[in-house]
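We were asked to recover a plausible sequence for a given structure. The inputs and outputs are reproduced exactly as logged, with field labels preserved.

PROBLEM: sequence recovery
POSITIONS: 478
GIVEN STRUCTURE:
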C-alpha cells in the first residue's frame, strides 16, 4: 500500500490540493471547504493550489464578453452557498458524465485547467456565443450568475437549493449643512443679543432745578419775553446714620461692663502711684491713701530716710477675684513691683469718685514682709498683732484626735514672698469661730483683717486668731 501524497482536483472550485488519505468516502476541499464524495474528485498532475479564474461581467443582466464566455465554458459548476451541506454517500457508482451540448467543448479532470486554445471561441459568431453563455454554470459562488437554462455540470453533484438573493437597501446619506449657513445664524444671534442689551430701559435723571415758562411783560407798548431765574429745590435732609447695636445677652453685657471697669481702675491706679511718688508732704500723700490716725505715723516713717525712695516700676491686675469680709464684696487686687520690693507688693485699690485710694495696711505689710517675720518667730510670749490676710479653708495635719475637730484651719497669705504663707487656726467655740465659720466656704478666697498670736497647743506652736474686723460691728482694726 502506497503512503505517498495524492493530488486531487475539487469538482466544485477546480482547486488542486494534496491529501494523504488513500481511502475514504468524503473528501473536503481546502480551498472552498465543500465536502463531496471521494469519487467526485479527480486525480490531477497540475501544480497544487492551481484553479481556473475568469473575469466577471460588469452587470448581472448584461452579456459577458466573448473571452469571459469562453473561459466560463471551461469553468466547473459553482454552488450558490459558500458552505453547502455534504450529500449522503451514494450506494451506487456515480453516474457517467453526460454532455448536453456536443457543440460545446468539455474538459475532463485530466485536462484541467483547459488549454488556451479551448478557451478561445469565434468572436464573429454572435449566435454561437449566446448558445455557449446559456449552457455554462456560474463562475464564482455567491454572485448569482445563474444561466437562463439548465446546463450539464461537468462534475455531477447533488443539487443544492439556491439561497434567496438578499435585498439591498439603499440609505440616503444626510446632507451636511453648509458652513456659511451656520456662520450666518451665529452672527444673527450675537447681533440680536447686542441689540436687546442696548434697548434696556435707562434710568431717568430728574433735574434739580425747575424753570417756569417765560413770562410776557409789556414794556413801552411792546411785548417782550423774559425768562426768570431758575428756582432751586431745597436739598434733602441728610439721613442720620445710627451705629448698629449688637444683639448681646445680659451675661455678655455684664462681661463688657466688668472689663471696662477694670480698665478704668487700672488707669486711675497709675495716676495714684505717680501722685504718691511725686508728693512731698504727708498731707499730699494722704489724699491717695486710706489709713487711720494711728497708721499716719507709719506712713511718715515709710517715706523718710534712710528708707529707700518709693519708686513704682510695674503694676498689673490679678486674674481672679477675692471676697472682702465682712462686707462680702468682690474685688480684684494689684501686684506692684518697686525698686525696693522685687517680689511685688499687694495693693487693694478702690474708686473714690474717679480717684483711686490704696489700703495702706495691706501694702505696707506685703512690701515690708512683716507677716513673713511673724511666721518665722518662735517665741510664744509675743504680743498679738493685726494682719490683713488672704485666707482659704484648709485641712490640718498638725492636730490629732478630738482636738482637731475643735479648730478651723486656714491657709493665710500676707505677702508675695516665698515665706509669706502659713496656717492659722480659729477655735469653733470662740466668738471669732462662730462669726467666721458660716461666712467661709471651701474653695473660696477671702480678704480679712485678723488679730494673730503665737500659742502652744498639744506641744505644738500654732498661729491662733483672737479677733477679726467686723466682729464688733466695725470695719477695721481697733
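RECOVERED SEQUENCE:
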Amino acid at each position: 500500500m502506497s503512503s505517498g501524497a495524492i493530488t486531487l482536483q475539487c469538482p466544485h472550485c477546480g482547486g488542486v490540493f494534496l491529501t494523504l488519505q488513500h481511502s475514504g468516502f468524503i473528501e473536503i476541499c481546502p480551498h472552498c471547504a465543500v465536502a463531496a464524495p471521494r469519487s467526485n474528485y479527480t486525480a490531477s498532475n497540475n501544480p497544487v493550489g492551481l484553479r481556473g479564474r475568469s473575469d466577471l461581467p460588469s452587470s448581472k443582466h448584461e452579456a459577458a464578453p466573448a473571452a469571459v464566455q469562453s473561459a466560463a465554458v471551461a469553468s466547473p459548476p459553482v454552488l450558490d452557498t459558500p458552505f453547502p451541506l455534504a450529500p449522503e454517500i451514494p450506494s451506487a457508482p456515480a453516474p457517467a458524465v453526460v454532455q448536453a451540448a456536443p457543440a460545446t467543448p468539455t474538459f475532463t479532470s485530466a485536462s484541467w485547467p483547459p488549454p488556451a486554445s479551448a478557451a478561445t471561441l469565434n468572436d464573429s459568431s454572435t449566435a454561437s456565443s449566446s448558445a455557449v453563455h446559456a449552457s455554462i454554470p456560474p463562475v464564482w459562488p455567491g454572485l448569482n450568475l445563474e444561466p437562463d437554462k439548465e446546463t450539464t455540470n461537468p462534475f455531477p453533484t447533488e443539487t443544492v437549493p439556491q439561497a434567496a438573493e438578499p435585498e439591498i437597501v439603499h440609505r440616503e446619506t444626510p446632507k451636511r449643512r453648509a458652513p456659511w449657513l451656520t456662520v450666518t445664524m451665529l452672527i444673527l444671534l450675537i447681533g440680536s443679543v447686542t441689540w436687546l442689551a442696548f434697548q434696556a430701559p435707562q434710568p431717568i435723571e430728574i433735574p434739580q432745578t425747575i424753570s417756569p415758562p417765560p413770562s410776557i411783560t409789556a414794556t413801552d407798548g411792546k411785548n417782550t419775553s423774559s425768562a426768570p431765574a431758575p428756582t432751586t429745590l431745597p436739598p434733602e435732609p441728610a439721613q442720620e446714620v445710627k451705629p448698629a447695636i449688637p444683639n448681646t445677652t445680659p451675661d455678655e453685657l455684664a462681661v463688657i461692663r466688668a472689663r471696662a471697669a477694670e480698665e478704668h481702675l487700672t488707669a486711675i491706679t497709675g495716676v495714684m502711684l505717680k501722685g504718691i511718688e511725686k508728693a512731698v508732704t504727708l498731707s499730699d500723700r494722704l489724699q491717695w491713701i486710706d489709713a487711720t490716725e494711728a497708721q499716719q505715723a507709719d506712713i511718715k516713717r515709710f517715706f523718710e530716710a534712710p528708707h529707700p525712695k518709693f519708686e513704682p516700676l510695674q503694676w498689673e491686675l490679678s486674674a481672679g477675684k477675692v471676697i472682702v469680709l465682712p462686707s462680702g464684696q468682690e474685688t480684684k487686687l494689684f501686684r506692684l513691683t518697686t525698686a525696693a520690693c522685687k517680689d511685688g507688693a499687694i495693693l487693694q485699690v478702690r474708686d473714690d469718685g474717679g480717684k483711686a485710694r490704696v489700703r495702706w495696711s495691706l501694702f505696707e505689710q506685703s512690701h515690708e514682709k512683716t507677716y513673713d517675720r511673724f511666721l518665722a518667730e518662735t517665741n510664744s510670749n509675743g504680743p498679738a498683732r493685726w494682719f490683713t490676710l488672704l485666707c482659704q479653708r484648709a485641712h490640718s495635719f498638725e492636730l490629732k484626735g478630738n482636738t482637731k475637730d475643735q479648730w478651723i484651719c486656714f491657709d493665710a497669705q500676707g505677702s508675695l514672698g516665698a515665706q509669706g504663707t502659713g496656717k492659722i487656726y480659729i477655735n469653733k467655740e470662740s466668738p471669732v469661730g462662730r462669726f467666721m465659720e458660716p461666712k467661709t466656704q471651701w474653695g473660696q478666697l477671702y480678704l480679712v483683717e485678723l488679730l494673730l498670736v503665737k500659742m502652744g497647743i498639744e506641744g505644738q506652736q500654732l498661729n491662733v486668731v483672737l479677733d477679726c474686723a467686723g466682729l464688733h460691728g466695725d470695719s477695721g482694726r481697733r
